[in-house]
Recover the amino acids of this structure.
DNA sequence: AGCACGCCGACT
DNA sequence: GTCGGCGTGCTC
């Protein structure tokens, strides 16, 4: 600080929620203190916004003093730690977004920056009322037993079984005095010694390996890999226990869908208290409390979706990323990031271990483990006597389904046997509705969406044709809109409704349940159906992707994959990986009880290496092939682009380029650059704003590619702005 | 005239 | 990201 600073206005750099590449400078009022990390409120245009005081004195890039506006308020809140500030800066640079927009993700808690108001409470005094009643006796007895403890007004009334007026009367008579209670913790403290399991063999070894990493108090990454049912959760719970014993905080990240009551219940059974939850639809009050108490360090364990990574932990000792391969970790709006990768960075900056957990790790994580960058801890066997199902491919050319059907005799036979034994079967098909395409046999007209040109999917149960891209729907017409012919519309291909129809035709007595995300009755109904399945109230379950994740079907002994070829040829650069993960997950649903179980995978390409790897359970072959393929690819550290379209930042020309790409029908994995030849260079130099159209599942990966491109030819002005958009049609 | 909508620049 | 200003073009 210069010598004359006492006379000049004090200024501070503040990150504000704008796309500005730099912090703004604000004047600090007389007597205000605000070091780096302090959370403040500042005026921005016509509004007041939260901001965080950034590092650097702010005197060099001198702003026009006339523009300087004063900091409105300095919050009484723990400042963001140096780790947290470095993390914000790192994420901003890596994702090509403005640091203020990253800070915004940290500060997106409406009113958590002021200390929680104390709760009004009552404490017993020496005085007693003149008139005593039975109700008053009860209250005084209860309050007397727990001598130093204070009560809330309603809590005391409730516990004593009296009305509020009894308590109020006693307070008025001077038997209680009003005191201020500290704010309630959102969750009780978890106890690492509560419900400690007696792990044996491989589980015990794995748990020790993780606990050692936690004890080392240093950055490390471990891949915890194990088949479904091997007890991965129990093992990483021991790493959490180790961090708790060391007095540090823990973040457990889960894909939103896995943040279920059953996870919370398991956690509570192990630690005697639930973790603090964090996800997008947490009630605002809880949200504020969790944020505040995480910042103060009183919340010890958070279980959250990807946004939990931006909570301001006071002393982070461990990050667990469960289901690390899950695509839900990719945030694909505003700031584009993959929370799994950012978790590793956060752990590095916080000098703590990260544990990535999966039965089917992503190819890049598996590669990092094989290369020795990550420690690799494996649980190859199922826990207790549960055995993995025997999985076999069904060659549909050799045992074709009956005309008009989609289930091969082999699968139907296995279903019949399973039914006879009184056991459950699951048929998996990743397609909602009755049929994915409807056409007119008279003129060949195909029903397509008027907005986005995707085929309309027939939903026979609702009597509608639906577009799964934009939500457009129309009733199924009786005549062809093109040629007017009646009764010539045919459904092409299967959806789960159609599979249900075929199943009921073969097994009219069976109790069949159909599960999909668009189920009538919503999430509530879905949960009820899941419960009735667990109770054995269904014989055959037919479902989409939804059945692969989260829920367990304890009685299941047969899994049939209706069409394994479905996901393999859709142009997604991760098609092979995703198919492998999905099929492993869905066949892994079977056999949890220890009964003999089977998986049957129907395919027209039984020699396909991905499907063979699924049938043989040969992970090594699968990963070796994928890694080799990625290494040949263009995307760092590896990975391949489906396509890049570089075009001017207006929707019309971007869409024109999308159409051009479709016309060119690119081979999967090719890189295409459309637009002027120098477009990529112009992008790097920041002369224009560009829009990229890429396959929906790969936008976060695309960031990595762009980052490498820009690193190769740095942009001196640092002003490249990239918007990444999806054109769901480009690769169909 | 009145206003809905889209584009553009400023915000410290 | 969010706001206000301003121009265009349409409706009452």
């Amino acid at each position: 600080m210069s010598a004359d600073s006492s006379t000049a206005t004090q200024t501070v750099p503040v990150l504000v929620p704008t796309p500005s590449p730099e912090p703004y400078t604000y004047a600090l009022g007389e007597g205000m203190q605000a070091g780096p990390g302090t959370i403040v409120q500042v005026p921005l245009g016509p509004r007041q916004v939260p901001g965080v005081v950034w590092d650097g004195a702010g005197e060099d890039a001198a702003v026009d003093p006339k523009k300087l506006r004063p900091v409105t308020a300095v919050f009484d809140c723990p400042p963001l730690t140096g780790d947290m500030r470095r993390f914000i800066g790192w994420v901003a640079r890596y994702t090509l977004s403005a640091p203020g927009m990253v800070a915004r993700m940290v500060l997106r808690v409406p009113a958590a920056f002021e200390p929680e108001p104390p709760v009004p409470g009552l404490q017993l005094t020496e005085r007693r009322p003149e008139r005593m009643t039975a109700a008053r006796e009860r209250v005084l007895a209860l309050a007397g037993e727990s001598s130093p403890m204070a009560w809330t007004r309603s809590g005391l009334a409730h516990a004593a079984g009296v009305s509020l007026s009894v308590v109020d009367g006693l307070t008025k008579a001077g038997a209680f005095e009003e005191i201020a209670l500290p704010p309630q913790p959102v969750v009780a403290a978890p106890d690492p010694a509560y419900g400690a399991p007696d792990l044996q063999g491989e589980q015990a070894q794995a748990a020790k390996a993780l606990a050692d990493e936690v004890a080392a108090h240093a950055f490390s990454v471990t891949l915890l890999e194990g088949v479904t049912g091997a007890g991965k959760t129990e093992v990483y719970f021991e790493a959490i226990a180790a961090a708790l014993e060391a007095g540090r905080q823990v973040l457990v990240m889960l894909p939103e869908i896995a943040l279920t009551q059953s996870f919370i219940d398991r956690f509570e059974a192990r630690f005697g208290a639930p973790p603090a939850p964090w996800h997008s639809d947490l009630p605002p009050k809880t949200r504020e409390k969790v944020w505040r108490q995480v910042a103060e360090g009183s919340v010890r364990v958070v279980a959250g979706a990807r946004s939990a990574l931006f909570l301001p932990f006071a002393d982070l000792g461990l990050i667990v990323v469960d289901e690390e391969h899950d695509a839900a970790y990719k945030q694909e709006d505003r700031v584009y990031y993959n929370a799994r990768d950012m978790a590793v960075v956060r752990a590095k900056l916080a000098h703590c271990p990260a544990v990535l957990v999966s039965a089917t790790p992503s190819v890049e994580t598996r590669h990092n483990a094989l290369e020795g960058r990550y420690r690799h801890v494996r649980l190859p066997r199922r826990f207790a006597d549960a055995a993995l199902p025997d999985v076999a491919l069904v060659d549909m050319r050799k045992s074709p389904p009956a005309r008009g059907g989609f289930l091969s005799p082999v699968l139907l036979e296995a279903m019949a046997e399973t039914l006879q034994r009184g056991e459950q079967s699951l048929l998996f098909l990743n397609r909602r509705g009755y049929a994915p395409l409807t056409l007119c046999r008279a003129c060949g007209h195909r029903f397509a969406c008027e907005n986005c040109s995707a085929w309309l999917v027939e939903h026979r149960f609702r009597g509608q044709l639906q577009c799964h891209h934009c939500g457009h729907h129309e009733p199924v017409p009786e005549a062809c809109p093109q040629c007017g012919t009646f009764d010539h519309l045919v459904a092409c291909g299967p959806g789960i409704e159609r599979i249900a129809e075929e199943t009921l035709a073969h097994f009219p007595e069976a109790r069949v349940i159909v599960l999909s995300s668009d189920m009538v009755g919503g999430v509530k109904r879905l949960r009820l159906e899941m419960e009735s399945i667990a109770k054995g109230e269904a014989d055959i379950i037919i479902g989409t992707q939804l059945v692969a994740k989260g829920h367990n079907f304890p009685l299941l002994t047969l899994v049939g994959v209706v069409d394994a070829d479905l996901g393999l040829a859709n142009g997604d650069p991760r098609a092979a990986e995703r198919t492998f993960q999905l099929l492993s997950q869905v066949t892994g649903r079977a056999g949890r009880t220890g009964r003999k179980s089977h998986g049957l995978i129907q395919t027209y390409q039984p020699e396909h290496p991905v499907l063979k790897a699924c049938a043989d359970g040969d992970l090594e072959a699968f990963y070796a092939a994928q890694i080799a393929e990625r290494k040949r690819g263009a995307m760092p550290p590896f990975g391949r682009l489906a396509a890049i379209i570089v075009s001017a930042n207006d929707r019309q020309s971007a869409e024109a380029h999308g159409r051009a790409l479709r016309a060119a029908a690119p081979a999967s994995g090719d890189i295409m650059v459309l637009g002027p030849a120098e477009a990529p260079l112009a992008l790097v130099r920041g002369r224009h704003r560009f829009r990229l159209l890429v396959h929906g599942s790969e936008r976060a990966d695309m960031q990595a590619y762009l980052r490498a491109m820009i690193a190769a030819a740095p942009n001196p002005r640092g002003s490249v702005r990239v918007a990444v958009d999806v054109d769901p049609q480009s690769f169909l």
